[in-house]
Design brief:
10 helices; single chain; mainly alpha; 244 residues
Length: 244
Amino acid sequence: MWFDLALIALGGFIAAMVVGSAGFAFAIVVTGVWLYVLPPVQIVLLASVCATALHTVSIWQFRRDIELRLLWPFVLGGALGVPLGVLALKHLDPRLFRHLFGAFMIAYSCYMLRRPHMPVVKLTPAIARVADAAVGWVSGILGGFALLQGTLPTIWCSLRGWDKRRSRTIYQPYILITGVLAMLWVGSTVQIDKSELMLPLAVCLPAMGLGLWVGMRLFEVISEERFRRLVLWLILVSGISLQF
C-alpha cells in the first residue's frame, strides 16, 4: 500500500515537473507510472482532475501574457472536435490509433531534432485563423478520443515561429479547456466510486505542487533553443510510450 502511494506521488511529481517546464504531456507521462498501481479507469479520472488543477495553477503564472485573439480559434475548433473524439471511442480501435499517432510523433521529433533551424509557416491573418481553428479541431478529436490534445498545438505553435512564452500561453490554456471538456464528456459515461480517488489525490497533490515549482524554475532559465529541443524530446518520448 505504501509503495503504491509512493509511486503515485512520484508519477505526479515527474509529470508536474514536465508540465512546469514545457506546459504539456502530463497525461502521457503520469500514465506510464500509474499503470503499475492503478486500474485504467481510475487513471483516466485521476489524471484528468490532476491535470486540470495543474494547468490552472500553471496558466495563472502567465495570465497577463495570454493573447485571446490568438487563442480563440484553437478553443473554438477544440470545442467542436472533442464530442467527435468521444463519439469515435465507440467505433475505432484506440490501441491501433495510439500506435499510428505515436509513430507520427516519433518521425516528426526525430526529423526536427536533426534540423539546425525550425521552419516557420507564413500565413495571412485570415488563413492563419482558419489553420489555427483546424489544428484545434483535430486536436480536440484527439483529446476526446485518447487524451492527446496537446501534441499538435505544441508542434503548430513552433511552426508558426512563436517564442516559448507566446507558444505556451496558447497551447497550455487550450489543453486545459479541451481537457475539461473531454473529462465532462467521458466522465458522464464512467461508473466508478469517486471515494476511491480521494487517497491517491491527497498523496499526489503535494508532490505535484513541488514538481510544478521545479519545472517553472527550469522554464525561466532555459534558452529558446534548449526549450525547442526539450519539447521535441518530450514528443519523441511520448511517441515511444504510445507504442506499449
